[in-house]
Amino acid sequence: MNRVALALVHHPVLDRAGETVTTAITNLDLHDMARSARTYGVTELFVVHPIAAQRLLAERIRDHWVSGSGKRRIPDRAEALDVLRIVPSVEDVYAALGGEAGRAGIELWTTAASARWGTVTTYPDARARLEHTDKPVLITFGTGWGLTSALVSSAEVRLEPIRAKADTGYNHLSVRAACAITLDRLFG
């Protein structure tokens, strides 16, 4: 399998009015998404935040569990949170994964709340594509009300929305739940 990484994007994302905003980092997202990433063999979870104080918070959480007293108490959590990489921008993720080629050196995938920004790829088709791509794959997850249209429309793959079999009239999963479901559908 090619290198697959995740990005938890806090900027640029949308608020409920459709405006571009920056959201706050939450401890629970870091723990749960790192545990899902580690469980399914994803080696990196990039946490994207432009505000230095928020990045410092994420780094302190990571360090507590990876090399601090948290590691001594719950070693499994250290193994999971070791996948976290905290960066200021999506472009930094592109550089980390794509090397000198940057964005051109990776295949960008998004999770789609809807198909409003282009065609979507089914999970069976995405699994097959993973077997044939020769570039690292970056799967992005948006916080708030999702990724901006510019980010979604620039992706090579927009994964189909996660929906219940029966339409309940409600579909707003937490990002950590969407991440776990996506990973299970791709690698489970």
Per DSSP E runs of 2 or more residues, the count of β-strands stands at 8
Percent helix, as a range, is 40-55%
Q: Order of helices and strands, N to C?
A: EEEHEHHHEHEHEHEH
Mean pLDDT: 93
CATH homologous superfamily title: SPOUT methyltransferase, trefoil knot domain
Number of helices: 8
CATH class: Alpha Beta
Explain what the structure shows.
- The protein is of the alpha/beta class.
- It has a single domain (4-187), classed as Alpha/beta knot.
- 41% of the residues lie in helices and 18% in strands.
- It contains 8 helices and 8 strands; from the N terminus they run βββαβαααβαβαβαβα.
- The strands form 2 sheets. It has a 6-stranded parallel β-sheet, with helices on both faces. A two-stranded antiparallel sheet has the order 2-3.
- β2 (13-14) and β3 (20-21) form a beta hairpin.
- It starts with a strand and ends with a helix.
Question: Features of this protein?
Answer:
alpha/beta, Alpha/beta knot, 6-stranded parallel β-sheet, two-stranded antiparallel ribbon, 188 residues
How do the helices and strands line up, and which of them pair or pack?
Blueprint (H helix, E strand, L loop, with lengths): L3 E6 L3 E2 L5 E2 L5 H13 L4 E5 L3 H15 L2 H5 L1 H7 L2 E4 L2 H9 L8 E5 L11 H10 L4 E6 L6 H5 L3 E3 L15 H13 L1
Parallel strand pairs: 1-4, 1-7, 4-5, 6-7, 6-8
Antiparallel strand pairs: 2-3
